[in-house]
From TrEMBL:
<dbReference type="Pfam" id="PF13602">
    <property type="entry name" value="ADH_zinc_N_2"/>
</dbReference>
<dbReference type="InterPro" id="IPR036291">
    <property type="entry name" value="NAD(P)-bd_dom_sf"/>
</dbReference>
<dbReference type="InterPro" id="IPR050700">
    <property type="entry name" value="YIM1/Zinc_Alcohol_DH_Fams"/>
</dbReference>
<protein>
    <submittedName>
        <fullName>NADPH:quinone oxidoreductase</fullName>
    </submittedName>
</protein>
Amino acid sequence: MGTTTSTGNVEWVSHLGADDVVDYKKQEFENVLSGYDIVLGTLRGDAIEKSINTLKPGGIIVSLIGPLDAAFARARRLNFFLTFVFWLMSRKVMRLSKKRGTAYTFHFVRPDGAQLTQIGKLLETEQIKPVVDKVFSFAETKDALTYLAQGHAKGKVVIKMQG
């Protein structure tokens, strides 16, 4: 698994289990990472397009941010106009992906009871371990949002609802 982070977090991210860690302040990830089967895209801008170069042939980019694609529109039975607009939005990344023998898809994250149950079991058995940066009380929600907006959280920020 490979990822990017800032200079101050390289050692921490490596300790979490990443095999390849790129300090984005010193290196361009697309020049360092390669040979991956899957890229999980969570950044806006040109990161998705750059990520194509990190995939091996047959690999896939699954974006949680966009651009939306025509397949997304068709799956939701959106009208022709919106399908066309989404196709236009994604055509550059689709063209680059096809040229490299890879694939691109947008995944819309939504609540899913079955998936949440499965994730709950993984948490209970400690097969996945969330990294919690800071816990705020419900009364401190504004402070929690301010903290998040600063962009320096190392893990999840939790708002405790009661207790």
